[in-house]
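Quick start: read one record
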Amino acid sequence: MTNPRRTILSYSLSDKDRKAHLKKNVKQLLLDTATCKSARVLLANPTAILFDSTLALRANCEAIILMLCFPSIITLIYEPDSIHNNPLLTRLGYNDACVTFDTKPAVYFAICLFCFAVYFCGFHVNHTHARLKLEVETDRVEMSPPTKMFCKVANWSFFLGNCFFSLCFMIPPQESTWWHTIPFVVYMVVRYLAITAAFVEEAHSSPGATISAHEIGTKRYMLVYGIATFCAPICWFICYANYDSICQNIPEGACVDYSPPVPWFITATFDYVWFLSLPLAPVFLPNNSLLNPEALLKAYDPELAFVETTDNVDNKL
C-alpha cells in the first residue's frame, strides 16, 4: 500500500555508499573530479544535496577546476603569448593558475563556468545551515551562541566569497594586480573557514549523534591546507608591494632590475598546494549526519514536511 504521506524528497545515498564515498582513495577521487562526477550526480538528482552537503562541496571544487582547465585551452589558442608575458609572471616569477582565464576570450568562458561553482556553493551552504539548525534544536550538537554564530558566519561568508570572486573576471591583472588578486584571496580564506566550521560542528556533537570521528590524516590536511591558504597571499602581496616600489614609473615588462623578493618556487609551492587541496577536501571532511527529509523540511516550514502521493490524490479525484 502506498504511503499517503510520502516525503517530498526521495533521493539519498545509502549508508554503505556514503561510507565508500568518504573512504575513496586519492586516485579515484581525482578521477571522479576530472569527470565532474559529483556535479553530474547533483544535477541529475538535485534533492541529493539535501542529504549530504559534501556532494555539493565536491561539485563546487569540480566547477572551479573546470573553470581553470577549459579556458586554458582557449588561452593557448588565442593568446599563447600571455603565458610567457603577463603581469603575474613578472611580479611572482611563475605563472599562477589564474593566468588561464586572464585574457579574452578565455575570461568569457570562465565567467560562464563559474556560475556553476556559485550554484553548488549555495546548495552546500543552504543545507549546512539547515542541518546545524536542526542539530542544535534536537540537542545533537551542543554549542555556545558565539560558536554557533561562527559556524553561520563562516558558511554564509563562503557563499558571499564565491560571489565576490567574480571581480577577478572584471578586473584583469593588466589593470590592477592587487584588485585582481584580493577577491581570490577572500575566497581562499572563507573557504577555509567554512571547512573549519564543519569540524567545529563535529567537535561539539553530543554523545549519540551520528557524526563520525575525524578521518585519518584530517589534522595534517587542515594544517597543510591552512598554511597554503594564508602563506600564498602573503607571498603574493610582498611581491606586489616590492614591484610597485621598484618599478613604479616604469612601463609594464620593462623593469629589468626587478626580481621577486620571495623565491618563486616557494610562492608556487604554497599556491599549487592550495589548488591540489580542492579535490581532496571532501575526503577529510567530517562525516556529518545525513538529515531526515521530514526534519529538513520542518526547518523551513512544518506545514511543508509532507505531501500526498500522486496515487492518493488520484484516488480522491
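The two ends are 18 Å apart (CA to CA).
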